[in-house]
C-alpha cells in the first residue's frame, strides 16, 4: 500500500510534489500557503507553476520574539503594532534578497515576485501576534466542496529553497499530502481564521524593495562592470576589497592560521574594543596585527590613525612590515622606552586622536 508521507530523499522533494499537484489536479483556482519562514528565492522556484493560478495567498509568521524583546527592554507591555509587523517582514525580505546567490535566474525571479505583489497576483499577510511554525499548503478549485478534488500538504517544509529541496544540499524534510475533503476543509478553516487576524503587506510596502537592494537599475559604471563579471564568470569572481587574504602583500606567504587569527581578531576588536593577541615566537603576530590594522583602515576610512608601541629591539621589523602593508602614513610609532613622553604629553602622538593602538 502506498503511503501519503514523503521526504526529500531520492530527489522526491516538496518542489517535485508541487509540480505533480499543479500538473495533475484539474482546475486549481486557489493556492494558500501558511509558513513560518518565507524567502523570495523560494517563491521564485515555485513561480512557474503558479502562472495560471488566479488566487494566491501567503501567510507568514514573523519573528515575534524580536518585537517582544524590544518592548520588554523598554519596560512596556507588547502591543500589537501593524507597522512593526510590516517592518519586520520587509527587513527579513531585504536580507533574503541581499544574501541570495547572484544569478540571472534568481534576479529575474525575485523581480517577478515583487511585480506579482504590486500587480496583486499574490497577496501576502504577516501575523502580528503568533509565532507561526506550521507549514500548510492548500490547493482547491474555485467552488470547493465534498465532491470536488483538492489537496493539502503539511509537514516540516517552509517556502524556502532549502524547504522546497531545490538546492544541491537541502534540509531533510518530512511531509504528508492529504486529499480527503474533511482534511482540506479543516486546514482551510484554520487558514481563514489566521488570515483574518493578520496584517496586509501592501504593494506599497514591497515596491521599495527594488530600490533598496541590488535589484535597482541605478548602477554606477563600476557596479555594472562587476555585475557583468559575475554574470559571465559566476562564482569564480569574488570582489571584496576588505577580504583578509587580499590585504596581504604579494611577497608574504598566505597561511590559513594567520588569516583565521586576523578574522577572529578583527571581530573581537569591533565587538570588545580590544583584545590580546598572544602566541609563541615566530608564528607571525606582527603580520596578523598588520592585517587587522589594514582592514581597520579600509573599514573606517583612510583618515584612521594607528599607534604602535614596540620594544626597541623590534623597531625595524615593525616599521618594515607596516610599510609593506602600505599603512605607514596612518601609523605612529612609540617605543616602550618612550612611554613616559606619551604620558607626560611631550610626544606629539598624544596630541593626535588615535583610532587603534
TrEMBL record:
It comes from Jejuia pallidilutea. GO terms for molecular function: helicase activity. This is Superfamily II DNA/RNA helicases. Keywords: ATP-binding, Helicase, Hydrolase, Nucleotide-binding. Signal peptide: none annotated. Residues 61-195 form the Phospholipase D-like domain.
Amino acid at each position: 500500500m502506498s503511503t501519503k508521507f514523503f521526504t526529500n530523499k531520492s530527489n522526491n522533494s516538496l518542489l517535485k510534489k508541487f509540480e505533480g499537484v499543479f500538473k495533475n489536479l484539474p482546475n486549481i483556482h486557489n493556492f494558500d500557503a501558511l509558513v513560518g519562514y518565507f524567502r523570495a528565492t523560494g517563491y521564485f522556484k515555485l513561480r512557474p507553476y503558479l502562472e495560471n493560478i488566479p488566487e494566491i495567498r501567503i501567510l507568514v509568521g514573523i519573528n515575534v520574539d524580536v518585537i517582544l524583546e524590544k518592548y520588554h527592554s523598554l519596560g512596556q507591555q507588547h502591543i500589537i503594532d501593524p507597522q512593526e509587523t510590516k517592518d519586520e517582514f520587509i527587513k527579513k525580505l531585504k536580507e533574503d534578497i541581499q544574501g541570495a546567490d547572484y544569478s540571472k535566474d534568481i534576479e529575474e525571479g525575485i523581480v517577478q515576485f515583487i511585480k506579482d505583489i504590486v500587480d496583486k497576483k499574490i497577496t501576502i499577510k504577516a501575523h502580528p501576534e503568533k509565532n507561526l511554525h506550521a507549514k500548510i499548503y492548500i490547493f482547491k478549485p474555485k467552488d470547493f466542496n465534498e465532491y470536488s478534488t483538492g489537496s493539502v500538504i503539511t509537514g516540516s517544509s517552509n517556502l524556502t529553497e532549502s524547504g522546497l529541496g531545490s538546492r544541491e544540499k537541502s534540509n531533510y524534510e518530512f511531509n504528508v499530502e492529504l486529499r480527503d475533503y474533511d482534511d482540506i476543509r479543516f486546514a482551510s478553516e484554520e487558514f481563514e481564521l489566521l488570515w483574518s487576524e493578520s496584517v496586509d503587506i501592501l504593494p506599497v510596502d514591497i515596491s521599495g524593495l527594488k530600490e533598496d537592494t541590488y535589484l535597482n537599475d541605478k548602477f554606477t559604471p563600476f557596479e555594472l562592470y562587476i555585475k557583468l563579471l559575475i554574470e559571465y564568470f559566476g562564482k569564480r569572481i569574488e570582489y571584496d576589497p576588505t577580504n583578509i587574504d587580499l590585504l596581504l602583500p604579494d611577497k608574504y606567504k598566505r597561511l590559513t592560521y594567520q588569516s583565521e587569527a586576523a578574522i577572529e581578531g578583527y571581530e573581537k576588536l569591533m565587538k570588545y574594543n580590544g583584545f590580546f593577541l598572544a602566541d609563541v615566537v615566530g608564528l607571525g603576530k606582527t603580520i596578523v596585527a598588520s592585517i587587522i590594522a589594514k582592514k581597520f583602515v579600509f573599514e573606517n576610512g583612510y583618515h584612521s590613525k594607528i599607534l604602535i608601541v614596540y620594544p626597541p629591539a623590534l623597531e625595524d621589523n615593525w616599521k618594515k612590515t607596516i610599510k609593506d602593508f602600505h599603512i605607514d602614513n596612518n601609523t605612529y610609532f612609540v617605543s616602550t622606552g618612550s612611554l613616559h613622553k606619551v604620558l607626560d604629553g611631550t610626544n606629539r602622538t598624544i596630541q593626535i586622536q588615535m583610532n587603534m593602538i
